[in-house]
Amino acid sequence: SLSARDSRVSLHRQRNGGDSAALNSALALAQGEYVARLDADDVWHPSKLERQVETARNNPDAALIYTWVRYIDADSRVHRDGPPQRFPPRALCRGIYESLVGGNSSALMRRDVVQELGGYDETLSSWEDLLLQLRISADHAIDHVPEYLVGYRVRPGSLSARPDNMLASWRKARQRIDQLFPQVPKFVRDWAHGKRCAELAEGFAWRAE
């Protein structure tokens, strides 16, 4: 109904082939200078894109602009704030270890850079956003808007609440990181693996597995 009322909105349907395939189809259709992903459950503050584009205009070297994230529940009540992350402009090592909180719905990216990199890795069922952000960070600067402008929704049935699936996908993502970024010291990649395993272990503990 929205696309029928507003010519700027385009609706595209395709057979379900996973998140990355859908995102790559959207990238092929995109025409703007920047692209931004908004997952179905998440919410943006009305000024989110405006603030990010303003930052991008002031820092043309940045290929990715992120913002801070609040965790919300099914009723959009704020449970807690995500960390106020302040990554350096060249953030490959930091990104491997820490990753952007709420990266799916937080990042604004230059479309030409994303397309040059080939978009999202369709072999991954999760962590595809992290891998793309790392590939951007390997050769380009990043920047941020130091404000909480994204609501990252946490639901009991969400993918991030299923640690077994997340662990299997992380193992694939880790192999890709090792292949793509051999210049990053091995201890950084090992620390990142330990950090992810510790976070997922908490999820298994809550499920008593």
Number of helices: 9
- Helical amount: 40-55%
Would you identify the regions where 5 or more consecutive residues have pLDDT less than 50?
none
Largest sheet: 6 strands, mixed
Overall spatial form: globular
Order of helices and strands: HHEEHEEHHEHHEHH
Query: How much is the average pLDDT?
Result: 90
Question: For the terminal residues, how far apart are their CA atoms?
Answer: 44 Å
What percent of residues are in strands? Answer: 15-25%
**Radius of gyration, in angstroms, nearest whole number:** 17 Å
How many distinct beta strands? 6
Structural class: alpha+beta
What layout of secondary structure does this protein have?
Layout: H1 2-5, H2 19-29, E1 34-36, E2 43-44, H3 48-58, E3 62-72, E4 78-81, H4 92-98, H5 103-106, E5 108-110, H6 111-116, H7 128-139, E6 141-153, H8 163-180, H9 186-206
Parallel strand pairs: 3-6
Antiparallel strand pairs: 1-5, 2-6, 3-4, 3-5
Helix pairs in contact: 4-9, 8-9
